[in-house]
């Protein structure tokens, strides 16, 4: 019950709409992760606040009212500056964020339909309709832009490593494990001592810490194992109790489990010091999976390593590595190269004698 109060405390507007509070409680009772509930609460709260500001009853809102909300999201001032021309360049929220904000609003209206309060959902969703032109696909309310994740260049990576080398042993081993095992931030920070198998250099990523509830076991390299051994000795000076692997060393929270927020601040500090501000806690995962694709790993192997439920998620890293396109380019270039060499060796022949490629 305490979890349901958190969004209402942050956004009191939810408490002013009975159906909204009830909808959020249903998702909480279904066992959704606290961060998911928090995101749902925030997204719906922003929409309800706009409804109140424009004096629109959300129970009878139509697509025109939703369009006003979308316009507000796309024109909202951004921390990156106001002198921009497109959604992703600094004015308004990013496309992915807008899609995320619309999800709880769509689910909220689905709930109202199930409860018999409404007959239709004003938030459209992309769907396949047999018989439609252009493949039968109907576009959603907001076009979905699919962008490849950013990964650092070799120069960026070396700059980051130079700064990370000066960090305490805990931060260094966390960064090494994050890359070596392609761990998400939550998976890394919630590791426990019992999840590590030093004898076989394996990490067990428990289902309850993953994004999609899929447990997996992944290896880590020998250099990371050396760092981890050093950290375990250091950790024993903080606490000999089994449990969370990474502990806080601040005076306020000494010996307590390291929080996601603390790890974010560590990475942010390293990124800024290295002059690579785009580097984040998720970048190491992107880089690892891209490197695996570059090394020629099979897509199913990468999916298993990453803990992806859908192969489509893994395809991102195949595209990002340019592996398949690179093979085709190299194959084509070999033919072109052979042809050019042949042409150079036959310069003395008559034009009619020179074969075309």
UniProtKB/TrEMBL annotation:
InterPro entries: CB, DNA_brk_join_enz, Integrase-like_cat_sf, Integrase_catalytic, Integrase_recombinase_N, Tyrosine_recombinase_XerCD. Gene3D superfamilies: 1.10.150.130, Intergrase catalytic core. Residues 147-330 form the Tyr recombinase domain. GO terms for molecular function: DNA binding. Keywords: DNA recombination, DNA-binding. Transmembrane segments: none annotated. It comes from the Bacteria. One of its GO terms (biological process) is DNA recombination. Residues 14-113 form the Core-binding (CB) domain. This is Site-specific recombinase XerD.
